[in-house]
Amino acid sequence: MLVIHFTIGFMSSRGTTIPSHLGKPTAVYEIAYYLVLLLSVGVALLIPVLLYLLVHLLGGVAYVLNVTKGRDVSKYLFYYAIYEFVEAGFLLFVIYIMVRS
User: Fold this and answer.
1) How does pLDDT run across 7-54, given as a tens digit for each residue?
2) What is the total count of domains within the chain?
3) Is there a contact between 14 and 7 (Cβ–Cβ < 8 Å)?
4) CA–CA–CA angle 29, 37, 33 (5° rounding)
5) Which of 13, 90, 92, 99 is most solvent-facing, going by the fewest CB within 10 Å?
6) Per residue in 28-43, is it b (16+ CB within 10 Å) or e — as a string?
7) Alpha-carbon distance 81 to 16, whole Å?
8) What torsion do the CA atoms of 35, 39, 43, 48 make, to the nearest 10 degrees?
């Protein structure tokens, strides 16, 4: 997950992202990851994990259905990169919490 988010964050900051044939399976994987994580975290992390799960469910469905097809999303890639790096930071924090417990 960290590699995915740092890679996509870096690519988005450069004005591109991963191709659809890789992105769609990645979106499904991320939904599954957050479902498993939801069952693995304590109460303190429950709300952020639920929020990330919701974001990935909505975003994953939109991605698989090609909601943005034909739209110019390049102006949003910088903000998407920030989101990806914030999520990577959250994942690092979750790893830190799990290692400490």
Assistant:
1) 999 999 999 989 989 999 999 999 999 999 999 998 989 999 999 999
2) 1
3) no
4) 5
5) 99
6) eebbebbeebeeebee
7) 10
8) -10
Q: Among candidates 62, 54, 48, 27, which has minimal Cα distance to 94?
A: 48
Provide the domain limits for residue 94: 2-100
* Distance between CA atoms of residues 85 and 65, nearest Å: 25
Distance (Å) of CA 66 to CA 25, 60, 62, 86: 13, 10, 6, 24
User: What stretches of the chain show up as alpha helix (H) in DSSP?
Assistant: 2-13, 20-38, 46-64, 77-100
CA distance 57 to 31: 6
Identify residue 87 by its one-letter amino acid code.
E
- Give 48-89 pLDDT, tens digit per residue: 999 999 999 999 998 888 888 888 888 899 999 999 999 999
Residue keyed to tokens 């939801």: 38
- Average model confidence (pLDDT) across the chain: 93
